Automatic annotation (TrEMBL):
Name of protein: Putative oxidoreductase
Keyword Protease belongs to the record: no
SUPFAM superfamilies in UniProt: FAD/NAD(P)-binding domain (SSF51905)
Keyword set, alphabetical order: Oxidoreductase
Superkingdom of this protein's organism: Bacteria
Start and end residues of each FAD/NAD(P)-binding domain: 6-335
Amino acid sequence: MISTLDVAVVGAGPAGLAAAVAAAEAGLTVAVIDLNLQVGGQYWRHRDEAGSEPTIGLHDVTTYAKLRRRFDEARDHSGLQYLPNSQVWFIETRSVENGVPEFVLRLTGFSDVGPQPVQDQVVARRLILCPGGYDRQLPIPGWDLPGVMAAGGVQAMLKGYGTRTGTRAIVAGTGPFLLPVATGLAEGGVEVVGVCEAGAISSWIPQTRGAAQVPAKAREAAEYAFSLAKRRIGYWTRTAIVSINGTDEVRSVTVAKLDRQGRIRPGTSREVLVDLVALGWGFTPSLELVTAVGADTRVDVDGSLVAVVDDAQQTTTPGVYAAGEVTGVGGAALAVTEGELAGRAVARAAAGVEDPRRRRQLQGRISRARAFARAMHRAHPVPAQWSDWLTESTTVCRCEEVSYGDLCYARDELGAGDARTVKLLSRPGMGWCQGRVCGFATAQLTGAVDAEALRPVAKRPLCAPIALGELAALADAERLAR
């Protein structure tokens, strides 16, 4: 018989760690589910703890060390359960006595070599969803060549394995995340020829009020700027990679200056020889679990679909809380704060444990950090005319090999006016990744960027890939329960 826990926390990154610790220290029974072997998420991804090799590019180690110590103490003394290498693929909501719901989380194994047997379910009275996000990508000619990676993927290989995925690299896209990726590559021994930032530094001028809410971010940016300058790495603003060149692998990229709308300025294109391209256009929150429990979503400033939460981090589904990037991309410090607030809110709801002063402190920090995040997104938007860089043969959906020409035909000739209809007619988002890579671009290319248009792109009835045997086992269990 599986016991019912007070709360299940999904995700062991900055938000999940903070939430789990806050709930466990309040005396609640807690299970933490994460697809990685080691806690920390992408931000605190690190080398094997049993090894002696240092981790490249690890940030804010002090905060991680404190949270990790409290997390380990909770595992040893408070009964906190950690379920690594596990993914939630389905959430069932069922009512118990007095109509109070409880949540059944169906789990599947996850490791570097594929699914592995794990505990197959967790039952909890409340959920804290901290699934994080993943790199947002825009298609450009040649982006499907070997040697092209998401910026976050490049960083993950460096942090987790110390692996250099190239010898001569260029980092491109928009947003502050390009800076730690470039410096991390350089620290790892890779020659970084430059950083192509599609935006302009002057775009921050109208956002000074929001930027001033978190002064530490300015200091962090200055440190990265100094690091780039010291290594003589170019930082080219209003510049983008408009094509990636090669036959069986990356040989070079074509970079060009952009106007304010993102159109290529004539006569500015030039070729740069590289064997590694790291692309990053911000992040997309992982919303599978949010939509699985029926919680409301909205479109954030950066065009991402995010979970709607109240001032205690509770979603519109009673008993379900969310923290971190899933409520809006804002960085690790904000995620930690939201996670702690969510953990404390659950403790208040479940056991009446509350510290009003600390709650107000956390809410104030969140308000300031959200103001900074809005400023950041407005200063680093996706270029409005990025589709001008595409050719008819440019692949948009890599899983199903759908080209830009295919999408244009569905949109212009067949009358598809939204991402869902385009998906039905030309199949983008119907492959292995289920639209995680191409969903944002498909929505942009169909001109549909409101919540109603984006929601079908984010909704996935099965939240993770599973074996057919696991699905069959669930059906067998339901028959036995009857």
